[in-house]
Amino acid sequence: MRKIPAVFFLVIALILCATSVEAAKKSKVVNHAENAYEAGMVAYEKQEYQNAVYAFQNSIDYNSKLYKSHYMLGMALIMNNETDSAIRVLRSAVVDFPNEWQAQALLGEYYAGTGDYEDSISYYTQALESKKIKNTDKELIQKKLKTVEREQEAKWRVSEDMKSKILKAIDTKLESVWRPRSVEKRGQNLHVVYALRDDDYQGGKWKNIIDLKCYTDKKDFGYAYANDRVVADFRSKDAELDTLEQDEENRYFETQVNDKQKLYIVGRIFPSAMGYCLVHVKSHTKIKETELKEWIEVLRNFKVNFIEGFNK
Question: pLDDT by residue (tens digit) across 22-79?
Fold first, then answer.
């Protein structure tokens, strides 16, 4: 994992938080949470990051609804080289404060630095959707998003030879109906998107999509399927999914993944020669009960064999 320079996060904190020590000193202390937050900002400015962590955590303990304390706790943890804890804090802030944008933007920056472009794009996009973001900040994040998308495109580019091998290794009985829209090799992982052969392409989106992702590393798989805070983990008994069917090797599920866009998914999780695979159908309307069995049958027909060039 590529390490991001600490000085970068110091600059980002001052830009995104827009809270100076002087402003904190002048503001009236209305409760213990604000007092602890101000103490945290003083420690942060002095680069006493461990003290800042304690102060921001105290602020949250007094008032868990004070968003700026959650965000700055994440920042202080990053500066104190506690990256894993920082990411957990920032992810929680995204869930608990969906209308804010700073934590989303910082996670976008972090994942861009580690080469996880999919998560980076997702968090940058969430930040841009916030009604609280100012135009100057919005323009900055839009530029960062475009940069990540260009880097992602370059990383995902697949040779025609590799594309042919991938498609030959994917066994489906639906070739007359569905066709590959894109084939991508993400490190040692695989991503293939199918669209109906005669489907319409409107507004930059296909009306019917089947998305197949395969992960060669179980750790990758355990964290990879995260779409708007809904996580599907084949090994997790309490995943936030409505399981439709399940046997020793397959799990079929449905879930809503985005309240604002009303995005629904019906999917299948299964092991293959490559590792764990996810194949799902995305829909912007609730899938009818009568159609669920038909979609399950479509998803059942996808199989993935070992592909030369990937780790088994």
Answer: 444 444 445 788 999 999 999 999 999 999 999 999 999 999 999 999 999 999 999 9
Q: Residue 46 has what DSSP assignment?
A: T
Q: How far is CA 186 from the centre of its chain?
A: 15
In 3D space, the residue among 90, 114, 95, 111 whose CA is nearest the CA of residue 16 turns out to be 90
Closest by CA to 250, choosing from 302, 293, 208, is 302
CATH class held by domain 159-304: alpha beta
Rounded CA gap, 138 and 129, in Å? 9
CA distance 91 to 107: 8
Q: Is the pTM of this model over 0.70?
A: no
The beta-strand segments (E) located in 168-261 are 170-171, 178-186, 189-196, 201-202, 205-206, 209-215, 226-227, 230-231, 242-246, 251-258
Give the side-chain half-sphere CA count within 13 A for 69: 22
Length of the chain: 312
Architecture of domain 6-155: Alpha Horseshoe (1.25)
Question: Which residues does residue 263 pair with via DSSP β-bridges, in sequence order?
Answer: 258
For CATH 3.40.1000, the residue range(s) in the chain are 159-304
| Token pair recorded at residue 263 | 């995005």
Q: Write out the E strands in 97-157.
A: none
Burial of 208 (0-12, 13-18, 19+ CB in 10 A): middle
Q: What is the number of other CB atoms lying within 10 angstroms of the CB of residue 1?
A: 8
Residues 6 or more apart whose CB falls under 8 angstroms from that of 152 comprise 117, 118, 121
pLDDT for res 26:
42
Radius of gyration of the chain (CA): 22
